Amino acid sequence: MNEYLSKVLEEVKEKNPHEPEFLQAVDEVLSTLEPVVNAHDEYENIALLERMTEPERIITFRVPWVNDAGKTIVNRGYRIQFSALIGPYKGGLRFHPSVNQSIMKFLAFEQIFKNALTGLPIGGAKGGSDFDPKGKSDNEIMRFCQSFMTELYRHIGPDVDVPAGDIGVGAREIGYLFGQYRRIKNGYEGGVLTGKGLEYGGSLVRTEATGYGLIYYVREMLKANGNQSFAGKTVTISGSGNVAIYAGQKVREYGAKVVAMSDSNGCIYDKNGINLDTVKRIKEVERGRIREYLKTHPEAKYYERTGADSPIWEIKTDIALPCATQNEVTLNSAKKLVENGCIAVGEGANMPCEKSATAYFLANNVLVAPAKAANAGGVATSAIEMSQNSMRYYLSFEEVDKMLENIMINIFKSCEASAQKYGYGNNYVAGANIAAFSKLAKAMKAQGIV
Ligand code: NDP
Ligand code: 2IT
């Protein structure tokens, strides 16, 4: 690594000693930028990398709410407004007990690069809470969301910061959050949140967008490498939430078979191909566990998770799509996948592979579709939702889907072009980082020292 890059990485480590996920995300980006930074001596004097790795603003706040038993609970809320360099802060909200400042910062940092890749005017942010939605009643979810928004509203706005969903935050939560914002602000500001219901300003395709976009990207990647396609392939998808379900739907449309899906407790394997309608019912309607799949599909198998490695990566597959959470693919799991003949990994989740796992895939000629690029379809469609809100107009499903597909094709092309230009071959992890960084660096230089 060149001197300036390693100096900045050391400083970031010193400043953020208790934030392993954030350091991992920064390290992953900086370790691919050498050829670009070498060509720009001027970056050091204007502290370009130091500014890019320090959030513009971190907001944490108290979220008190009353549960159904009448007891008051206090959670912690976050909004990391990392960069508004190229557009209003934009990024999802995650409700999960594991949420902490390190996880929020890694997600917000990655979001800056992802959003730059979409080609749309959106900056990078992330937020959420250590609130655990599992087992909570609808009323508890509503009261929590109302309390969360009662503080968050003062920090956001259609031209300032536009949150959306992520793990544990879907259409139901966005509805409650929007309702409370509207009530406090005494007016309809549709563009303040995305992922809204279709009745009150949401966009068609936003629900499907991350999963569909992932498959459009992987399709392009397969095509560019030996003219391969999904047809006839076996696919395993971790998670069984928003991203996993709609990735599965598109995979099936393209003639491949999804044989395994999972949740945090374990995974199901159905050699005939997973019935996605059953998964949708269990996860979206009943909010149950993936093992319940066996009740209606006794021919399937269930493997309980017992340790750090998810059992899903032991299953033989051509293509693996991690769509659950960060670091869910360990080096052990990567070795298992390679041993079983996996040819491509498409990252639907954010930073799903440990750094050593990604390195192992690349060293073994497994194609990697990196999260920043491959799962950008969700936020890109959020930006299309914002445009529709500004126009006070709705586009059709076909129109939005076509826009999404074109955006994903363009993202793949820019990752490919940057990787080739800087000698990284078909390493799209490096390609994505460089393509995004180059655009952000230009914008940063243009705006002066801010
Ligand atoms: P959902 O809440 O809809 O689903 C999350 C899924 O991942 C569930 O099956 C959940 O299982 C599993 N999961 C969550 N945390 C863990 C964990 N710690 N260990 C194992 N499994 C876990 O979320 P999404 O589908 O929206 O998000 C999935 C991933 O995709 C996340 O990494 C998110 O950041 C990323 N992403 C989402 C986008 C979006 O538009 N929604 C856009 C881009 C990226 P369980 O029910 O057991 O918790
Ligand atoms: O990680 C992500 O890109 C998201 N959770 C979607 C963010 C958004 O603003 O739509």
Structure, explained:
With 450 residues, the chain is α/β, with parallel strands linked by helices. The protein has 2 domains: 3-189, Leucine Dehydrogenase, chain A, domain 1 (Rossmann fold, 3-Layer(aba) Sandwich); 209-369, Rossmann fold (3-Layer(aba) Sandwich). Helices cover 47% and strands 15% of the residues. The chain has helices spanning 3-15, 20-30, 34-38, 42-45, 48-52, 101-117, 138-152, 171-185, 206-224, 242-253, 276-285, 293-296, 331-339, 355-363, 371-374, 377-391, 397-421, 428-446; strands at residues 57-66, 72-83, 89-95, 124-129, 161-164, 234-238, 257-263, 266-269, 301-304, 319-322, 344-346, 367-369. The strands form 2 sheets. Strands 9-8-7-6-10-11-12 form a 7-stranded mixed β-sheet, sandwiched between helices. Strands 1-2-4-3-5 form a 5-stranded mixed β-sheet, sandwiched between helices. β1 (57-66) and β2 form a beta hairpin. It is globular and about 60 Å long. The two termini are 27 Å apart. Bound molecules: NADPH dihydro-nicotinamide-adenine-dinucleotide phosphate (NDP) and (2Z)-2-iminopentanedioic acid.
Rounded Rg: 21 Å
**List of distinct ligands in this structure:** NADPH dihydro-nicotinamide-adenine-dinucleotide phosphate, (2Z)-2-iminopentanedioic acid
Mean pLDDT: 98
The ordered H/E elements are HHHHHEEEHEHEHHEHEEHHEEHEHEHHHH
SSE class: alpha/beta
Spans of at least 5 consecutive residues whose pLDDT stays below 50 are: none
Number of domains: 2
Q: What would CATH call the homologous superfamily of the largest domain?
A: Leucine Dehydrogenase, chain A, domain 1
- Strand content is 15-25%
For the record, give the distance between the C-alpha atoms at the N and C termini, rounded to a whole number: 27 Å
CATH architectural arrangement of the largest domain = 3-Layer(aba) Sandwich
